[in-house]
């Protein structure tokens, strides 16, 4: 048999991982695993844990303003107008400011001037040498008179639909007065021609156009109605249409 080999207590304690305290008590020496360079520290549980990424402002975990936190001051909002049906009302038309009184006064002057020009043109185009005299009717005279009155209304009155109506009425009145005064001028020419044929001082008995128009207006009215036809009234209706149309176009420029 091999000779017995004895081991000292120091050797046994070293092999078994124990340390003999000088007083005789045994204490276990903690064994630690060596750390790898560049690695992560060992956490309880045996698994390495990655460092948490930095949290962004306003993300999860960030305290939100609520109860117990000071509230940021909010800007007061302007009240929004509410419209019925979901659509805003159309913007009011913008037009030039005008003077209605001045526009009406200018339209009256244009009416008188237009009536006289209409009567003069009607008398100039009538053939008074024939029996009965032949009167030529035309539409352009009424259109020109109506446009003249509409121009005065729009230039001085601005965008005012009430003045357009006044201009239409004055245009119709201008053509009507022009027709009647034109017939008075035609009757004066007819009587003058007849008095020249008779002779013997008959020319002194001939009535003037103003006397026929003012002193014998009822007779003039009857004579005009007898000679008028549907075409005469149609041509007269063109004057107010021209007045409104001209005023509308000038006001919308």
TrEMBL record:
Residues 1-14 have a biased composition (Polar residues). Keywords: Membrane, Transmembrane, Transmembrane helix. The chain crosses the membrane at residues 101-126, 138-156, 163-184, 230-250. Residues 1-94 are annotated as: Disordered. Signal peptide: none annotated. Residues 32-49, 62-82 have a biased composition (Low complexity). This is Uncharacterized protein. It comes from Streptomyces antimycoticus.
